[in-house]
Amino acid sequence: MSAGSRATYDVVRVRKDFPILSRRLAGGDQLVYLDSANTSQKPQSVIDAVSEHYQVHNANVARAMHQLGTESSQAFEEARDKVAAFIGAPSRDEVVFTRNATEALNLVANVLGLAQGDLGVRAGDQVVITAMEHHSNIVPWQLLCQRTGATLRWFDFDDDGRLDLSQLDELVTERTKVVSLTWISNMLGTVNPVSQIARRAHEVGALVVVDASQAVPQMPVDVATLGADFVAFTGHKMVGPTGIGVLWGRRELLAQLPPFLGGGEMIETVTLERSTYAPPPARFEAGTPPIAQAVGLGAAIDYLSELGMAAVAAHEREVTAYALARMREVSGLRVLGPTEAVDRGGAVSFELAGIHPHDVAQVLDSRGVAVRAGHHCAKPAHTRLGVQSSTRASFYLYTQPEEVDALIDGLDYTKRYFGGS
């Protein structure tokens, strides 16, 4: 019986779909994987889909006239259909495959700098982001502003990790051309009010770009009602392969934008003097795309759909609430971000008083508990909270309470190891 057909979410059954979760590490410790915000583990069905594609169907897409080419092209485009349905896209032609969310965000920032007419970002325009963004949603906009003479502005957030919207109308004005923000912070776990901000942005004619890298894996998504104009996410955080990302954009906008890269399959015709370009999404998919990775992403979507994203979201809230409650038992531990499982995702960054985050992670690893330490590609957010770095535990659809208990036991051991009480 599949996990999705059960009356209740059965995390023990779900875990059996992920071969790596049964692994024992050096020293014999059972793997406790709490780094899914970094990359998720893969179910056997995704592993098999990628392997089968290479074994049986491998060929380039949209080029070869033979049977293998037809099969590969069909599998690639079926994956596009699955993505469109999974996120509620009105049209499959609004789904652009990229290598990752970083490339998707860079694509938008670059083509808006090249675009003609009202869509183009020019000197005197403003781009608005937030202080909690991943570097992938900061650096591309900094580069755009440097190239064009536009001004970069940002929302601050409070000590609890919530966006400060008190100056929404002052930040998002008639000069604002783009508002780009994360839906769920990869460091703070905060779920941001995208629709509210999007309404204000559209009132002044600004475009809205959303980094949904942590959102699409964790909860149901409907881009048609979100209020965004562009949404970026990545396959490897949603039980899919690495090397595949998605940019969703409203069809009428994609049709007006120039190419990001030049090469094969993004053209209508080429002469030595000039070229004309294919309509979206092909216009933005130059060269051989990540074919097997897209097939794997399609398999990942099949898996998530069978589980049901509402059930995945409910499980994540439950296990995150349990983790936050257990963390309150650890003296000297400070959670960076919301301390209640309300409007927050499954990534929990924290400090342990007097112990460097890298030391915390290393001691936990010695006990089989895998977490992340550092600035999590969110240095400005750390600076805002007055810390250089943090340890981050992140939970997902296969995390069980016993693994949270192993984390807490590991933190208590870490304190004793470094001479704490």
Task: Spell out the key features of this protein.
421 residues; alpha/beta; Aspartate Aminotransferase, domain 1; Aspartate Aminotransferase, domain 2; seven-stranded mixed β-sheet; four-stranded antiparallel β-sheet; 14 helices; 37% helix; 15% strand; disordered N terminus
Please tell me about this protein's structure.
With 421 residues, the protein is of the alpha/beta class. The chain folds into two domains: 151 residues, Aspartate Aminotransferase, domain 1, CATH 3.90.1150.10; 258 residues, Type I PLP-dependent aspartate aminotransferase-like (Major domain) (Aspartate Aminotransferase, domain 2, 3-Layer(aba) Sandwich), CATH 3.40.640.10. The strands form four sheets. A seven-stranded mixed β-sheet has the order 2-8-7-6-5-3-4, sandwiched between helices. A four-stranded antiparallel β-sheet has the order 11-12-15-14, with helices on one face. Strands 1-13 form a two-stranded parallel sheet. Helix 5 links the parallel strand 3 and strand 4. The N terminus is likely disordered.
